[in-house]
Specification:
This protein is an alpha+beta fold. The chain contains eight helices and 17 strands.
């Protein structure tokens, strides 16, 4: 499905419209929520990761999903995606042209299996989100074999012709179709299109180039990240087989509820208990911010306690622009005395 359709926005949508739609859908489909949908949640996050980035969005608008990790010709900072989930254009052209020009032995195209993506949930406090955090994450997955460095064999091992393809790197296939018998050349799966295989495979990984082990990754969580957002760490996922590229790691951020502050985007809200006298006298309040700082605000004369006091620039840092902070909104909760003296009653009557 089209990324714009997934987020329910038009192709001319602004960054703010895309972000607003993402927040709503991520909250709706979050897998930890009752009635959530993990598949749709991942689709929403994938669409947002592309459309929130100007360069990636431009590549997507130009090339569509085929750009995924790069447009043809090596566009800005991406790689061409021929993974398990996308359309492998190499196979399509190879089927039509018989494998001309795809490199490797005799024109066969070398293919390796990319590792799977991995998702890890990380809980953070609101204070950690305010400051930004570093996390040392460890998890069980396939990692590159340290003995053969992912090759599946030692460098000194002799390479011999693949018996499956006779050293050509390609095998011939015949298929019946509407147009008759179609002959097609495809890459040999036994040698991955190389045409040669090692005489002796690595004993540690049995030639797969990877082993099951604990992977440790240091992740930087930027200040201002929001609950439900997934941070991508490229190449930190599962190692691919036989030298294939590693998958990506997605760190799903969950922000714990705070005892004092409630968060609404980059803004914070909190309550302050005040007395009738504080309101009438326009008392100065001492407020402690989320970053541990303290500051003073004065209750305006004649302030309507049904409204909130706004303190500009005392909220959360904005993601990717930490120097710009949101605002803080303070609700005043009236505290009434249990007993009122005779003198106080007389003064109140005079005010009426």
């Amino acid at each position: 499905m089209d990324y714009y359709e997934i987020l329910g926005v038009s192709k001319n949508a602004s960054e703010e419209e895309i972000k607003k739609s993402y927040r709503g859908l991520a909250h709706k489909y979050h897998p930890d929520k009752k009635g959530g949908d993990e598949k749709k949640f991942k689709e929403v996050n994938e669409a947002y990761q592309v459309l929130k980035d100007k360069d990636k969005r431009a590549g997507y608008d130009r090339f569509g999903k085929a750009f995924e990790r790069g447009a043809p010709g090596g566009g800005a900072g991406f790689e061409w995606n021929v993974g398990r989930e996308g359309v492998d254009l190499g196979d399509m052209f190879e089927g039509i042209f018989g494998g001309f020009g795809f490199g490797g032995a005799g024109g066969a195209r070398v293919r390796h299996t990319r590792g799977n993506d991995i998702q890890i949930i990380q809980e953070l406090t609101l204070e950690e989100v305010f400051q930004g955090a570093e996390r040392k994450i460890h998890f069980q997955t396939y990692v590159q074999c340290r003995v053969c460095n992912g090759a599946g064999h030692a460098k000194s091992v002799e390479l011999i012709a693949c018996k499956t393809c006779g050293g050509k790197g390609r095998v011939r296939e015949e298929q019946n179709s509407f147009f008759g018998n179609v002959v097609r050349m495809r890459s040999c799966s036994a040698c991955q299109g190389v045409g040669k295989v090692p005489k002796e495979r690595c004993a540690e990984c049995r030639g797969e180039g990877r082993v099951r082990d604990t992977k440790r990754v240091e992740v930087h969580i930027p200040a201002g990240v929001e609950d439900g957002e997934a941070l991508k760490v490229g190449g930190a996922g599962e190692a691919g087989a036989e030298g294939g590229g590693s998958g990506d790691l997605y760190v799903l951020v969950r922000v714990k509820l705070h005892a004092v502050f409630a968060r609404e985007g980059a803004n914070l809200t909190k309550e302050e208990e005040v007395s009738v006298g504080d309101i009438l006298l326009g008392k100065k309040l001492e407020i402690r911010g989320i970053g541990g700082e303290t500051f003073s605000i004065r209750i305006p004369e004649g302030f309507d306690v049904r409204k909130k006091l706004k303190v500009a620039g005392r909220g959360m840092p904005r993601l990717n622009v930490p120097s710009r902070r949101g605002d803080m909104y303070i609700s005043l909760r009236m505290k009434f005395p249990k007993h009122i003296s005779k003198k106080a009653k007389e003064l109140l009557e005079e005010l009426e």
